[in-house]
Amino acid sequence: MWPLLVRNLIATWVICGFWDWFLYLSPMKEVLRPFKMNPKYPPLRQLQHDALHTTLATLCGSGVEILLCRLWATGMLPMQETLAEAPLWTLLWAATIVHWRIPHFYLMHRGMHPWRTTRVPDFGKFLYRHVHAQHHKSYLPTAFSGTNMHPVEATLYYLMPSLFMAYLCRLHPAVALGCIFDCAVGAWLGHDGFRWPGAGDFFHQLHHEHFDCNYGAQHIPIDKWLGTYCGSKADLKKVWGTSSSVGREGNMECTQARCRAVRDAFAEELHLALKSAGLSRETDLAAVPLRVEVRGTAGRALLDRSIAVGAKAECDVQVFGDEEVLPLQFLVCSLPCGHIIADISGRTALAWRSNPSAELAAGSVWMIPPEERVVLQVGHSCVALGPPANSLKARKKARTFGEAFREDFPAKKCQKSSSASTSCGSLYDSKPDIYSLRSDSPISCI
Ligand SMILES: [Zn+2]
Ligand SMILES: [Zn+2]
């Protein structure tokens, strides 16, 4: 057992560790920059987090390998005793591992995203929140993000195809173990984030950016067959909503340009006002990373002069699937002195803040201290800005979610979540009318 564990841990760190170092930390980093699919780079903290969880996932995979060996050794699992027993059969299954393991992955992965069912309970929403959200913390994936999985997901990921096919097809152990190896290496290289010399898996990169599409892999077109395939951000509307007007390219460009113009104008005016108030040093006006969570999961840090939040695909933070969210809901400018939030919609409400010193009135401009966590209600969904709920600072100040909810949001439009974070309400409860363009939208072209 120990040699097997040590072998797998060494392999994980040699493959993932070298590849992430080479692409993200080595002197080649600058040379390879033009080949990065998403020009933004993940913070070092994400690499450390993913490395730790990938190490844990490897322990789960090793557990699966040990279990299979035990089942074969005790005769509980049928197997080809030697490679010579059925060479063509073995060759067939060995050569097609990458194809037959993907349907298992699709099934498991799709099951861990919201099912969007109304007749049966949406267990996928529960699984996403408590299991799969772990994987989506890697908004800008690297090799270590490949198996940055909750232990439940990691175990199922390695176990499902290897055990099922070993049992069904009486595989030689080498083929089933090859499947475990392919699960690991395929995930690591598939998440490296580079067109070259990486795997260039734009398909799965889109899944990490937009969540509810591309659950499988491109070489087995299950997503195409089941209607969950997206080739671009704009395709999301075809999957989860319809709008005749938004799909046209010209309209997309127009809304993108207007969204950018609104964002930049806000940042420009704000900088001018701050300069006239005496904050003229470059460090006073430098953009600082702003951590954003939508519905309590998949928090990510954004570093831009200003950030747009709304239902439209053109927004930097998109709250899609909730018909109550306006195309452009609010703008945020993050500065060293704090986050300045402009509620463009006039409908953004304060749901909770870690320092409940002052009320924030809808339709105004608010300034939040840099270390404070605020939860804003947009439609039936919530967007949190600031440090994570479980960070030491936030926890020290925070009331329990129940207390905060009763005191700050008595109307109870939102649903309670199990974590003291943001998740009030859900996109999945409302009908997905993701891209409906409203004529009163500040970024509407109509
Ligand atoms: Zn992934
Ligand atoms: Zn996913």
UniProtKB/TrEMBL annotation:
One Pfam family of this chain: FA_hydroxylase
InterPro entries per UniProt: Fatty_acid_hydroxylase, Sterol_Desaturase_Related
Keywords: Membrane, Transmembrane, Transmembrane helix
Transmembrane segments: none
Main location class: membrane
Compartment(s) of residence: Membrane
Domain Fatty acid hydroxylase: 104-228
Designated name of the protein: Lathosterol oxidase (C-5 sterol desaturase) (Delta(7)-sterol 5-desaturase) (Delta(7)-sterol C5(6)-desaturase) (Lathosterol 5-desaturase) (Sterol-C5-desaturase)
Natural source organism: Durusdinium trenchii
